Amino acid sequence: MKTISSRIVGLLYCLVCIACLSACAEKEEPAPDPEKMITGKKWRLTAATTDPSFPTANGGTSSNLYNILKDCFKDNYEEFREGGVYIYDEGTTRCNTGDAQTEQGNWIMNTEKTKITISSAGGNANTYDDVEVTETSLKYTFVTTLDNSGTIYTVSVTAAPVP
């Protein structure tokens, strides 16, 4: 009888130990919320590429869209404010002095946090796919035509917080 009792006590002791170890194990931190990480920062374009490559003025092709942008575009930034307010700012160097310094619209992420839709004050809306947000980068893609050829390009964008 003592043998069965000691086995039960031993088994209970093992179960208690396992339960304690499980309770003490490191808990996984919840994944950061992209919607929270995107707000509170001004995001400036740092890279833009296309697939397929597009024809250049010198007769070649390139997939590096950022390299051919005028400098007046490279200092622009966008803000995703809490409450869904979107701001696009021309930066210190405007390409056209007649353009407004800032444009305001609205933004929203889908429930999976993989798409951002930005609506302008005029009602036009664009959806950006494959959204990835970290503390130091914002990445997304969109599909467009860049020229009159009818070719459809996938543009991949990377932005970083303005220091």
Automatic annotation (TrEMBL):
Residue intervals of the Lipocalin-like domain: 40-140
Organism taxonomic ancestry: Bacteria, Pseudomonadati, Bacteroidota, Cytophagia, Cytophagales
Pfam short name (any one): Lipocalin_4
Keywords: Signal
UniProt organism field: Catalinimonas alkaloidigena
Range of residues in the leader sequence: 1-25
Name of this protein: Lipocalin-like domain-containing protein
